[in-house]
Design goal:
Helix content is about 85%, strand content about 0%. The protein has about 220 residues and is mostly helical. It has one domain (about 35-210). The radius of gyration is 19 Å and the shape is globular. Helix 6 packs antiparallel against helix 8 (about 115-130). The relative contact order is 0.22.
């Protein structure tokens, strides 16, 4: 029994899942915050579309790492800077929409931005693909871990699957907590949360667009 348990614990999928959970906690940022707050004001199926988008984006970067072509991304630093600015502009725009939400009655939320499953999926997918935190996690930390592992090709892909599995598990937990909060909290509390999240997203976005902003105003948000 002990041997079976030890073998199960050492399985590449479980090892990958443990690394993935660490990356999820270490990489919590605007996307995690965005999904949490969307869960307080949107139906769960619409927010689950965002989870699917994050999972798809993570899957792309994990596959790229496993295929060993990660060096291409590292060689294009100028493109990376452009990605950061685009990502910052999108995050800041979403932050503004949350600030507007906080100043509007709940029935009018959907008049400010088309928060539906399709738009949530596309928006979150673009944000995750361009998010510097995601890129660092899966072109840096994950890739470095792969280099240290002495596994067969098959086990490496199992390890990658385990790492990817952490994304829907972690994000679903975040979304469910946000959804439960949205169901029981009064509108005034939701509006205050929208304002706080909106301001944080705007600050995140500005930091991406103007890197000196974070250094000038003290410790960076990310």
């Amino acid at each position: 029994m002990a041997d079976i348990l030890r073998k199960w614990i050492q399985h590449p999928v479980l090892k990958g899942l443990k690394l993935g959970i660490l990356l999820q906690f270490g990489g919590m940022g605007p996307i995690c915050l965005l999904l949490f707050q969307l869960a307080t004001v949107l139906p769960l199926p619409d927010v689950f579309a965002g989870i699917a988008a994050v999972t798809l984006a993570d899957a792309v970067y994990i596959l790229v790492s496993l295929l060993g072509i990660i060096g291409i991304i590292h060689q294009v630093k100028s493109t990376s800077e452009i990605f950061k600015k685009i990502n910052g502009a999108v995050i800041a725009y979403l932050g503004i929409s949350f600030v507007l939400m906080s100043l509007t009655e709940r029935p009018s939320y959907f008049d400010l931005y088309d928060w539906r499953a399709g738009s949530v999926f596309v928006g979150v997918l673009v944000l995750t693909m361009l998010n510097p935190v995601t890129i660092v996690c899966y072109t840096g930390v994950f890739n470095a871990k792969l280099a240290d592992l002495k596994m067969s090709v098959k086990d490496l892909f199992f390890f990658g699957f385990g790492t990817l599995l952490s994304t829907p598990l972690f994000m679903t937990a975040v979304v469910l907590v946000g959804s439960m909060g949205g169901a029981f909290l009064p509108d005034i509390v939701i509006n205050v949360m929208n304002m706080i999240v909106g301001v944080l997203l705007i600050l995140w976005g500005v930091q991406y667009i103007f890197p000196k902003f974070g250094a000038r105003f003290g410790k960076k948000l990310l």
